[in-house]
Specification:
933 residues; mainly beta; Maltoporin, Chain A; 12 helices; 44 strands; cell outer membrane; transport
């Protein structure tokens, strides 16, 4: 989390000079170009990169939390280098992707994971290859006027990242370093050994009362147990993180350069997990003559680490505290849960398994720009995105998962190759000083190929060689290989017009041809228009111009698309199969998907109405947006007649609407040596399914969600609890337990259909939604002289979380550990109204007990810094020096019982907000410095 010395006092004062109207002349990065901030008609947010670097994290997209209105960030894994899910103005797709498009130095990239699936656990974030210290600007494009220029890839919004480039002048050397300590942000309260033993006794007694009340352990044996094994304490640790970033920049009037290197290492708070990055970047621009300019942006990164095995969090939560890490009798590790064959010893799994993922990524662009006339420029850009991955896993025969198989090895390699060509022609003209016109024409094409292969073996003579000796395995795993490609060719045009800095017009049109869709639906057209009026420039505004420095009205409308589905989805395909003919194993091919020649992209129309206000020379500014997004032709797997030989077909059906408000407030104040900046972002989004198509009124997603007209995406569907059955109620209310032989202490469920009994299939109802009522953030930066302090608060209100960890921990079977709330379970002496009795073989029902309020208020970052005064810096012959201490995720106020309420294990919009065995988030305290020469 190295922070730049650019936070220095001198720069701060420069940015806070009188004449804040200068903010309107700042340049904003937009699609295929730049615009003066005051000329932008779309909904565009520029993120302060200094605020990003306050957050200690390997992935820059996780650092964006709270920094832009309308942007929601969820954690898919707290693992070092782990994944993150972003939503801009809500999710719209059911079967397709919902992540925004990322454009890095003009190259469109995706956060999609390329993996051979040879390892276990959550994959690494492919965007973690980019060091935040290399980022110069991040721009979030939200409405159609800003995003439609990216056509069929822009329905989920666009995030444009521009990396740092050199400036003319003497070489500047900047070194940034930080070191931090991470700890588990929150523990889950579980039963200790004595409490668990009592619970197991009760469950065994419930199953067979004739054997007595102490079938597992006697009272004396329970008293002698102590607390037992704290599996969370055994698994988690205090972990180090370190970040080093070195850059050199400078140049002449003709040539400018910026070269950087980064080394980042993050140990995981879960033992035997980590992530590292070794990256370098070269940005070079050269003005060869008065007409021709060239440049390259080249980055290379080696990333990777040791991953947590899949299901490890679930295992350590449910492992009985009476079990031990090591078997004192047999020696070695305790193999598994002694009462069930489900969970292996989580510490053995962590420490003995090899589970690594490594990747190399090269991302580069080169351009040449030729000026035919002062008003006419042609730019040609070529780019390449190459990534290779290596995955290795070995489960030794000495632990439970590998014992029966005699050791299990798997290896995999993957390759991602993408090339890009963009050609743009730009014409600018100013007529009679008041009319300014900019026209853009473009042609772009991009092709991507992905290949991977994996294989493995088991039943080894020895574990010594791990995965490096597959041929010695007696059993060879069936090898798998895969290759696919996609291509996109596009033409686009944009017109920007402004009159006298008062009236503004932006219109764009893009045509995309995609290989992903059916032969009859290859091309799509995506137009947009945006207009704005800066009322504060009008002469009648003069009497209040000293108070209201800006008053700008904006509106836009346009179409964008979403093509994020798998490749070849429109084609009828075959898959490899095997059959027995006369005892002979024969391999062949069989159809596995029906074709759809009319399959097309999802289309999103969006209307936006905005207002920008600046007060007192823009010391205080406000941006307010209302938007309405309608996504049609949703990609859905729809049931088709069985006579086709298939159950479903991917088709364009359904409509989803997102509408909402966004508010962004900024305040900049200075009194002598004291300076105070504040930012507040507020977002409210309402999501609703308005059409599903076909005859079916709704679709059930798995066991937990419903997709239904009139309801939002991510609606939980299950049983509603109604208390606990008490003695004497067995005959009257026993039917509401869903059990054939109800007993006092069983959980009661609501009879939704009114038939006098509870059945899972007939009495499910809506029990919550992942959609928040609103999200917001507050940032403050206060400085006095050379000292500065800053903090950020983030909040989400009204969203529910499906806590499948809690569902498992509230099974009081005595076979696995349980939540501490099990101490309040129903017994004869303690007839609880909320917790059921212990039961050896329960039949868990998905209910509202597993859906929790995920609202939270989080102290996201706190930073205290000191910048060496410029005079002292000159005496030391340095350009600047800054020290700081910082904390991330310092405090979270929430009623949620899991590790982190801002979590999801799912990628699509239907089953967001699921917490099941997610690697927990960490609390990080760091110290660092930045020095410039």
């Amino acid at each position: 989390m190295a922070q730049s010395v650019s936070d220095s006092t001198s720069k701060y004062r420069l940015e806070n000079m009188t004449g804040r109207v200068r903010q309107l002349d700042e340049v904003v990065i937009v699609g295929y170009g730049r615009q003066r901030k005051g000329d932008v008609s779309g909904a565009v947010t520029t993120v302060r990169t200094d605020d990003m670097r306050q957050v200690a994290d390997a992935s820059f997209n996780r650092q964006l939390e709270g920094l832009a209105a309308g942007l929601q960030v969820s954690t898919t894994s707290g693992e070092p280098g782990g994944g993150v899910s972003l939503r801009i103005r809500g999710g719209s797709s059911i079967e397709g992707g919902n992540e925004p498009l990322y454009v890095i130095d003009g190259f469109p990239v995706y956060s999609t994971v390329v993996s051979a699936s040879a390892v276990s656990g959550a994959p690494l974030n492919p965007l973690s290859m980019l060091a935040s210290g290399d980022i110069a600007s991040v721009t979030v494009l939200k409405d159609a006027a800003a995003t439609a220029i990216y056509g069929s890839r822009a329905a989920n919004g666009v995030i444009i990242i521009t990396t740092k480039s050199g400036q003319s002048g003497k070489p500047k050397i900047t070194y940034q370093a930080s070191v931090g300590v991470q700890t588990l942000a929150k523990r889950i309260d579980l039963l200790d050994a004595r409490q668990f033993a009592s619970l197991r006794n009760e469950a065994l007694y419930d199953a067979n009362p004739a054997l007595g009340t102490h079938q597992y352990l006697s009272a004396d044996e329970i008293a002698a147990l102590g607390g037992g094994t704290d599996w969370q304490r055994e698994a988690f640790r205090s972990a180090l993180t370190t970040d080093h970033h070195l850059s050199v920049s400078g140049g002449t009037r003709q040539t400018r350069y910026h070269v950087s290197g980064n080394y980042y290492l993050q140990e995981g708070i879960l033992r035997h997990t980590d992530f590292s990055r070794l990256a370098t970047r070269v940005n070079l621009q050269s003005q060869l003559n008065s007409r021709l300019a060239t440049g390259i942006n080249l980055s290379m990164a080696q990333t990777g680490g040791r991953l947590a095995p899949e299901g490890i969090i679930t295992s350590l939560l449910l492992m009985p505290p009476t079990a031990t890490v090591y078997d004192k009798v047999r020696g070695g590790y305790t193999l598994r849960n002694p009462f069930e064959n489900i969970f292996a010893n989580p510490i053995a799994s962590l420490l003995e398994q090899t589970n690594t993922s490594r990747s190399f990524k090269l991302l580069g662009t080169a351009f040449a720009e030729y000026t035919f006339l002062p008003q006419l420029k042609l730019k040609v850009m070529l780019g390449v995105d190459y990534q290779s991955g290596h995955e290795r896993r070995y489960i030794p025969s000495t632990i439970y998962e590998g014992k029966a198989a005699g050791g299990i090895a798997s290896v995999g390699t993957s390759e991602h190759r993408s090339w890009l060509n963009e050609n743009t022609l730009t014409y600018t003209a100013t007529v009679a000083r008041k009319h300014r016109l900019e026209a853009l024409l473009g042609l772009t094409q991009q092709e991507t190929k992905v290949e991977w292969v994996r294989t493995g073996a088991s039943n080894f003579v020895s574990d010594k060689l791990s995965y490096n000796n597959l041929e010695s395995g007696a059993v060879v795993t069936t090898p798998y290989s895969y290759a696919t490609r996609k291509a996109l060719i596009s033409t686009f045009a944009r017109l920007n017009y402004q009159f006298d800095h008062r009236y503004f017009l932006t219109a764009s049109l893009r045509a995309d041809g995609s290989s992903r869709f059916g032969a009859k639906n290859k091309w799509g057209w995506f137009p947009s228009v945006g207009v704005s009026w800066d009322v504060s420039r009008e002469s009648f505004f003069g009497p209040i111009s000293h108070i209201v420095s800006q008053f700008k009205l904006r509106t836009s409308y346009g179409l964008t698309g979403n093509q994020e589905i798998g490749n070849e989805q429109s084609l009828a395909t075959l898959s490899a199969v095997a059959y027995q003919f006369g005892g002979i194993h024969v391999k062949g091919f069989a159809p596995d998907r029906v074709g759809n020649s009319r399959l097309g992209w999802e289309s999103t129309s969006q209307f936006d109405l905005g207002l920008d206000i600046g007060l007192w020379n823009n010391r205080f500014s406000l941006s307010l947006d209302y938007y309405h997004k309608r996504t049609r032709d949703l990609l859905l797997n729809v049931e088709i007649p069985w006579t086709s030989g298939f159950q479903t077909s991917l088709q364009n059906y359904g409509t989803v609407v997102n509408r909402g408000f966004e508010l962004a407030l900024q305040s900049h104040n200075e009194w002598g040596k004291m300076r105070w900046d504040a930012d507040f972002n507020f977002s409210l989004n309402r999501n609703k399914v308005v059409q599903l198509g076909g005859n079916a009124p709704r679709y059930i997603s798995g066991l937990y969600y419903i997709l239904q007209v009139g309801q939002p995406l991510g609606t939980f569907y299950g049983a509603a609890t109604d208390g606990i059955l008490q003695p004497g109620e067995e005959q009257g209310r026993g039917a509401l337990t869903g059990n054939a032989n109800p007993k006092a202490g069983d959980r009661l469920y609501r009879d939704v259909n009114g038939d006098g009994k509870f059945t899972v299939s007939a009495d499910r109802t809506i029990i919550g939604s992942v959609q928040p009522d609103f999200i917001c953030s507050l940032s403050n930066r206060l400085a006095y002289g050379s000292f500065d302090v800053s903090f950020m608060l983030t909040a989400s209100v009204g969203n529910d979380v499906l806590n499948l960890n809690r569902q498992a921990l509230e099974v009081f079977s005595g076979q696995q550990n349980a939540a501490a709330s099990a101490a309040e379970r129903w017994t004869i002496s303690h007839p609880s109204l909320t917790m059921p009795r212990a039961k050896l073989d329960p039949a868990p029902v998905f209910s509202d007990r597993s859906v929790e309020d995920g609202s939270y208020l989080r102290l996201r970052t706190v930073t205290l810094g000191y910048t060496l005064p410029a005079g002292f810096a000159r005496k030391l012959h340095i350009g600047g020096l800054r020290w700081y201490v910082s904390a991330t995720n310092l405090l979270t106020l929430t009623g949620y019982s899991g590790y982190d309420p801002a979590v999801t294990t799912a990628a699509n919009a239907v089953d967001q907000g699921t917490d099941q065995g997610v690697y927990p988030s960490s609390r990080t305290c760091s110290i660092g410095f930045s020095v410039q020469f």
